[in-house]
Sequence to fold (161 residues):
Amino acid sequence: MPTDNMQNYKSVIIDLKNQNTVKKNGKSITVSRLSNTNNKIYISNEVKIKPKQQQELDRDITAVLDILNVKDKSIQPMAVVISDYEMVNNAVASYNPVKNVVYIRQTILDYNKLIPLQEQLACPENKYSTLLHEYIHWSDAYRNKYSDFANADNYKDELKS
Ligand SMILES: [Zn+2]
Fold:
């Protein structure tokens, strides 16, 4: 019988055939898809992620999408985990509406490192609220874009009739 504290984390599988290039502060970063996650998570070549961290991040993104009432999770933005160096500024996470990418600093994966960093930034947020904050930016951008698309479709229908 498995015990309560027995955790079977999914292994980290980096899909090198599913890569993307993102630009952060003018610098190109190659990122690869984590294939053992439910959400659209990519990781920079500069970042190492542990199975537990992967699972926690995946779980937190699902929770945030649920809070935002996103039923079709395929519409979610790319979440990209990048190194402290690649993040350049002190942000823990950020959303780029043009590229539709949520950048996540690797520090967020390590709770013990995150807390001192946030104290330094005088930012009371925890990892969860940081992610939620960025996904709210995405949700706002998506809903704006979607209403534009909806209007465009209506317009097309009007032309047909
Ligand atoms: Zn913000």
